[in-house]
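Hi team,

Filling in the usual template for the complex we talked about on Friday. All components are listed, including any nucleic acid strands or ligand strings, so the model treats them as one assembly.

SUBMITTER: L.P.
PURPOSE: interface mapping
COMPONENTS: two
RESIDUES: 221
SEQUENCES:
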Amino acid sequence: DVKVTQSSRYLVKRTGEKVFLECVQDMDHENMFWYRQDPGLGLRLIYFSYDVKMKEKGDIPEGYSVSREKKERFSLILESASTNQTSMYLCASKSAYEQYFGPGTRLTVT
Amino acid sequence: GDSVTQMEGPVTLSEEAFLTINCTYTATGYPSLFWYVQYPGEGLQLLLKATKADDKGSNKGFEATYRKETTSFHLEKGSVQVSDSAVYFCALMEYGNKLVFGAGTILRVKS
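RESULT (copied from the run log):
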């Protein structure tokens, strides 16, 4: 069965902290994605990766970076968290035809 | 750029009512179209998809038909259940791997 896991379901961080969100997939997919989900805005793409060490900016990359050192793991990094980054973060990996999503991490920055 | 517009919610229905959630899109080419569902506390799951004009996607009693002439992909179900309460997202994929999502529509079904 397809599985995408995210390191935390809920996270509370302070303004200015460095935050790591981890995503792991067990399907040997090359393509992985990070989205943020906000009410009324749907899902917006932050970054995606099409191979190890390869990354591309999505629609809203400002304030974020990513790391893909191994095929199964794709990390989202908030270098200095700010309150406007309070959101639900969803990771996905893609087969030929479908994106599979993790359960999400609800991040609150205070 | 590409975009997806969904009807605003929340949509509140009684059990066994007919459901329609409208979705229209803007794209330069011929995208593939998707409906995803997010149940409370979970990530998104693919509900159905259609890859070319006039295709009908269906799953779990839900249906949507790819209408190129009206650039629409409306979601329908003949008889909703309380367990269908969720957030529904319409999305398109045109080039490469990127999905473009609508804002999502909350569906609440009362018993």
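MY TAKE: The mean pLDDT of chain A is 94. Residues 67 and 75 of chain A are 5 Å apart (CA to CA).

Thanks, L.
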